[in-house]
Amino acid sequence: MSRVPTAHNAAVEGQIAKTVLMPGDPLRAKFIAETYLENVTCFNTVRNMLGFTGTYQGKPVSVMGHGMGIPSIGIYSYELFNFYDVDNIIRIGSAGALSDDLDLKDLVIAMGACTDSNYANQYQLPGTFAPIASYTLMQKAIEEAQKKGISVAIGNVLSTDVFYNANKGANDAWKSMGVLCIEMEAAALYMNAAQAGKNALCILSISDHIYKGTELSAQERQLGFKNMIEVALGII
């Protein structure tokens, strides 16, 4: 019996491309589909987590929101990898900078994703799992950014479960370990990809700086991440 559609995704077999770009905000997915893709069809509106398939420079690609946090991306990416036979998921999202070398709209490629989440507990591993990006996708993203003259920072990020953290020393501790920025999803995406034998990458655009006190507006977060989107599209 077919496992699709699911309770979260109305798509049927064949409606989703092998490569999916995933912003957190479903309205950003809609913006990307309408701005960059041709021959677009909408495959999902369940819970308003919009999903679209089209072509970019003649290549099929899908774009779908994943919501906020590890539980949300955990569901959507698991279903895409395991039920819809997606091979590559590229998260394109926002992040809060920790590194003094980062500024608003700078790009970060998450080579690894630290986390304070308990997501890996389900695998019952005899140790601590280190979630990492697909080297192939990461190399392509670096090359695409270089080709476009876009500088990127590459390294560890933090995928946290906590947006408003009661532990006031947490950011200082992660920064002291060289973590570049904070987001909320990459670790689960990388774990799901590892278990499924698929490829995942997280490309982030800095929306605020935790130490410098600067931030983008909600409108700028939704529409202003042109470099990140174009680097991701360039590697499909």
TrEMBL record:
A purine D-ribonucleoside binds at residues 8, 183-185, 207-208. Phosphate binds at residues 24, 28, 47, 91-94. Homohexamer; trimer of homodimers. GO terms for cellular component: cytosol. Catalyzes the reversible phosphorolytic breakdown of the N-glycosidic bond in the beta-(deoxy)ribonucleoside molecules, with the formation of the corresponding free purine bases and pentose-1-phosphate. Residues 19-216 form the Nucleoside phosphorylase domain. The record marks 221 as: Important for catalytic activity. PANTHER family: FI09636P-RELATED, URIDINE PHOSPHORYLASE. It catalyses: a purine D-ribonucleoside + phosphate = a purine nucleobase + alpha-D-ribose 1-phosphate; uridine + phosphate = alpha-D-ribose 1-phosphate + uracil; a purine 2'-deoxy-D-ribonucleoside + phosphate = a purine nucleobase + 2-deoxy-alpha-D-ribose 1-phosphate. One of its GO terms (molecular function) is purine-nucleoside phosphorylase activity. The lineage of its organism: Bacteria, Bacillati, Bacillota, Clostridia, Eubacteriales. CDD domains: PNP_EcPNPI-like (cd09006). Keywords: Glycosyltransferase, Transferase. The active site is at residue 208. One of its GO terms (biological process) is purine nucleoside metabolic process. Its EC number is 2.4.2.1. SUPFAM superfamilies: Purine and uridine phosphorylases (SSF53167). The gene is deoD. It comes from Acetivibrio thermocellus AD2. This is Purine nucleoside phosphorylase DeoD-type. Transmembrane segments: none annotated.
